[in-house]
Amino acid sequence: MSLAKFLKSCDFLIHLLLAAIFLILLISLTLLGLKKYTRHGEAHPVPNFSELTVSQALETAKKAKLRIEIIDSTHNALAAPGAVVDQNPEPGFNVKQNHTIFITINSSIPEQVLMPKLTDISIRQAQVLIENCGLKMGNTIYEPSEYNDLVLKAIIDSTEVRPGEKMIKGTAIDLVVGSNKANLTNFGEQD
Questions:
Q1: Is 91 within a domain?
Q2: How much is the CA Rg of the chain, to the nearest whole Å?
Q3: Is residue 133 one of the residues assigned to a domain?
Q4: When you count CB atoms within 10 A of the terminal residue's CB, does the N or C end of the chain come out lower?
């Protein structure tokens, strides 16, 4: 039998039709299985975990058939220690069950930074170092010195602080700065 006769024969057409039906059936079952496996169209809004404690957030997540994971902590003086201060995804965002919600909690201990070396540099350099460390610039106190605008001491509440000491982030640092100006009436004044 030649190829042309075989292609026109009834056996070939039956096999071709069966192959097409099998392919359509296979694709349909695969798509149906994927839809069921991925729970297509099943989404629920994320609850608001803000200001909840970790145990309350776990209970809320369990009720919503979600999971939570603590990814970070930060210190916010306005929030209760251990309370949720941020979450991802945001409240109201639609997710499927068993989705993980990433939360950030409020630390009970304020963040601490190391005090930089501020002496023997200009007041401008000291101000940049203070701000880069997360500290705040306090008052500037001028004292007589042969070097103008040179930082002589860094103080907090009239106590000198040394480089490397741990400080609470956001603490105001007062600087004692030298001045060689002829007008001595400004010495001891604060900006």
A1: yes
A2: 35
A3: yes
A4: N
